[in-house]
Amino acid sequence: MHIKILAIGKTDDKALTQLIADYIKRLSFYVKFSLEIIPDLKKAKNLSETQQMDKEGSLILNKITTADTLILLDEGGKQYSSVAFSEYLQKHMNSGIKQLVFVIGGPYGFSDALYARANGKLSLSKMTFSHQMIRLFFIEQIYRAFTILKNEPYHHR
């Protein structure tokens, strides 16, 4: 299985970028993984929130196939402990899907079209984090999930 994260907008902070790269490298020992950044919309200030969500939604939908399992990182999504999230990933791997795509949206969330296409929603916390920081937190949790599945000492119970 391939795990892909689609995220809107680049990460400006070099320290965050380095940490993200470190966890992506670590993940490569467990699973085929990629992070794809969709550039911020040009002239977004001229767009309403709905127009911005619709345009971002179209860009995201163009990056996935009908066979992909699409999970939106959304504040209204299901929350998991780290152990339960590792079981969630294992269940997807056992199902035989080829690609599991997680989406980190823009500042206003997701379009109706993306919600309609999504196979599920996942929330990392009831708190709000910056879209740049959530990338690091989520990639670290994916890495943690694989260390849990392999009974490695990274995650202490």
Describe the structure.
- The protein is of the alpha/beta class and 157 residues long.
- The chain has one domain (2-149): Alpha/beta knot (3-Layer(aba) Sandwich).
- It has 5 helices and 5 strands, in the order E-H-E-H-E-H-E-H-E-H.
- Strands 2-1-4-3-5 form a 5-stranded parallel beta sheet.
- Helix 3 (82-94) links the parallel strand 3 (69-78) and strand 4.
- Helix 1 (14-27) packs parallel to helix 5 and helix 3 crosses helix 5 (131-149).
- The two termini are 27 Å apart.
Summarize the topology.
Layout: E1 2-8, H1 14-27, E2 32-38, H2 49-61, E3 69-78, H3 82-94, E4 99-104, H4 112-117, E5 120-122, H5 131-149
Parallel strand pairs: 1-2, 1-4, 3-4, 3-5
What descriptors fit this protein?
157 residues, alpha/beta, five-stranded parallel beta sheet, 41% helix, transferase
Q: Quick summary of this structure?
A:
This protein has helices at residues 14-27, 49-61, 82-94, 112-117, 131-149; strands at 2-8, 32-38, 69-78, 99-104, 120-122. The chain is an alpha/beta fold and 157 residues long. The chain has one domain (2-149): Alpha/beta knot (3-Layer(aba) Sandwich).
